[in-house]
Prior knowledge:
Layout: H1 10-38, H2 41-68
Helix pairs in contact: 1-2
Amino acid sequence: MEEQVQIGNRGDFGQWAIEVAKLIVSDQGFELAKAAREGSEDDVRAAGAALGQAITDALMEVYDGLIEE
């Protein structure tokens, strides 16, 4: 999430959420699937934690933007 996005209404927020979800799933979701297929239980756990952290980071990013306004 390097690009700054102006969220002025619910539609803007929805579009932002869709784009962020695509990025997270394409990156972290792939890593989780790969770990589930080829890795150990610890690898799956680590990939799942990374996916959860990516979601948390995205939500905190938008929250911080709301607070700054």
